[in-house]
Amino acid sequence: MYSLKMENQFVYTKKRSEFGRQCIFNDEGPKNIDNLMPNKALMDEYILRDPVHRGIQCSKTYAEHDLNTIRAEYDQHSMNHAEGGWPKDINPLDIEQTMRFRKKVEKDEMYIHTVLQLSHPMEHCIFQNNAVNIYELYFTDDDQSALVERSKSRTVNVFRDPSAHKRPIHHLSWSPDGGSRLAVTHCNLEFQRAPPDLSTHSYIWQVENPNKPELVLQPTVPLVCLEYNPKDPHSLVSGLHNGQVAFFDTRRGGDPVELSSLAHSHRDPTHQVLWINSKSGTEFFSASSDGQVKWWDVRKLNEPMETLILDMTKGEEQSLNRALGASCLEYEPTIPTRFMIGTENGIVIAGNRKGKTPQEKLGATYKTHHGPVYALQRNPAFVKNFLTIGDWTARIWSEDCKESSIIWTSYHRSFLTGGSWSPTRYSVFYTTRMDGTVDAWDILQNQREACLSVKVCDEPLRCLRCHEYGELVAVGNDRGTAYLVEFSENLAVSAKNDKALLTAMFERESRREKIIEGKMREIRLRVRTRQSEAHSAGSRDSRPSVPQQSAADIMLHTAEEEFFQIIEDEEARAAGKEPEIPSAEEVGPTD
Fold this sequence. Notes:
The chain has 591 residues and is an alpha+beta fold.
């Protein structure tokens, strides 16, 4: 290859006379311009100063100089980055769709080459942002010291019902965007006690602004329950007082976007609705005291996708007349086909949606409380263990033990109305009572009494909901006031070995209950055997037989004899006598 080089030159001329006059230099000796001679008269006027005062410093003299290095000029830029790069048919909020799309792209042949080409400019940009991390933790390997903070709480905010007639709060729901909003439903469920001009509004509050609600939900019928979509902070579903379910979109205002038809809805108030894990993210299910559980899709609320009647009678066709009224629901996204239902007569039903028949869908049952089950929730870390709230106690159950709970609280003087596990500290749960008290329980620290009891208000508390970060708890009372209570850090932060200790506790208590259940089965079998033998012996005898006692009467009689025997032994020890040991014939067969 050859290159051509072009030189551009320009020549111009100018006369010497145009440069000015020529300078001529030569050598020349010095010249005396002026000579000042000394004057002695002035010398006589001069006076010597004696003594002379001079100020000096004993330290060194320093000079101060200012300088500055070459400074780099900085310019600030801001950028708003949203989720991008996805096709139109891919929902970035759906984890399953994004995972399938990533796997599809990674199988492409050009994927590796494209990544290698983009790695160099990306590395260059990363090095430009290289800086010193002033918040770096240098001692992460050391064990964290145990928190010895005293349990305490404080009321952060109070949200009052803006309507003239105050209505009870029946449900609370935190928004999924970090819990910046709180949805509150107001409804009077007392039969024919509500005044005709009672407001049907419910509210969504900004947590930091208790003066005015951010959005007023305006259904035609009061809302009993309201639940945020865990994947979309603008979508909510609710259950209404007349049994319908509604879908709200906060971007479209406070009116319902979709409403189920009255013919295909529940016959009684819808007590709870919960979103379920689905590919579309638009499915949920509802429960009511009419004994039905319905599965819905917000895109088509004309009729439910599936209906399940809570009739536990086996071998017969399901009937709504025999159905158990549902009071609460429980759903764990990690086991999407299973759910739990709390009923009005104190029974908890463990269901499986994969079952082909209603009997298969309604599996195990747990006799939990003497009255309605007001709250039901699985432990966030141990899904086999769940918490139930009802009558005067809170109970912790294991799926393997169906006859009795493994841990329970003592009976309170007032009814319990709600409860929830702490999402961050797995051994802590909170309960609300009719006397306006919130109790914080830590079963690793104390199982006999609550770690902290807070008198929030004088009115009965109806519901409770924990914030996802664990420190904030929202409660609502009968006067339509919601309180935001902040608990101390030791009730919200888990220690390093808490999970191992809680695992050992649940396993130990479950093993103990299984042993007791086995013993009770043996006792019942032995009693039935005795009754059958006595009945056969009585049938051979011509004389009229004595009425046979039931198994419960025999067990009660045995317990009474053992109780009075223990009292007599204690009295004998107190008197200084040896207690009488009954013979083998008196004791009977050992259990």
